[in-house]
Known about the structure:
It is built from seven helices and five strands. It is an alpha+beta fold. The chain folds into two domains: 16-79; 82-249, CATH 3.30.1330.60. Strand 3 (164-169), helix 5 (183-199) and strand 4 form a beta-alpha-beta unit. Helix 1 (19-39) packs antiparallel against helix 2.
Amino acid sequence: MARKKKHKAHEEHPSEAWLLPYSDLLTLLLALFIVLFAVSQTDQKKVTEMAQAFSSAFNTGGPSVFDMAGPNMSQNTATPDDKEINKAYMEENQQLTALKEALDKYIKDNGLDAELNTVLTEDGLMISIKERALFPSGSAELVADSQKIGPVIAGLLGSIKQNVIISGHTDNIPISNAQFPSNWDLSSQRASNFTKFILEQGDNLNPARFSAVGYSEYRPAASNDTEEGRAKNRRVEVLISRSVQSSKMQTMQ
């Protein structure tokens, strides 16, 4: 009997159709990694542009995988350029420095070093005035010597556009009389009276730029343990508040 010839089993080749979706998936993953890397960079504008470009290329309808790639990605809002912010900050800083130098010269020329001092901070130009230069002890009525200071400060404030905060401060010794039940009342009234006095010095001072506040004993400039320290704490401060902050300070906030 003749033997039947055995035929080799048919060898099937695996389909390569899966390569197409796989390559698309790799492309999407690559695009996602690029966007995630870009989000970690500081240039938000470029990140937005990149996300929009990838969304247009790969989004076929509905929410895009890139919509949540970064903060406020969906909002096409431009932020001020750091260079412009810092330029404006430096210009204002030069202005405040010039005001400080002018006031320091007046203080030196008129022997007022013991009554006034100035300091330039991140908040603005601070002018500190000792109690004895403006008020009698325990009173909010301005003394005659305030005429040496008030008109000069008013002249400086009239040449600028920044907001001004005038604050009253006391030491920690309690006061209680018919006029001032507490140091809160005394410090607030002193700030208010000096603000009114400043505004009376010229028509070019806009009251909307000014505010008066009393801090009582709670923002001391020195220790209240000594008479010298308490004398430093009894003061009025005039803060010419910065209208521009550096981009570094904005980032820290």
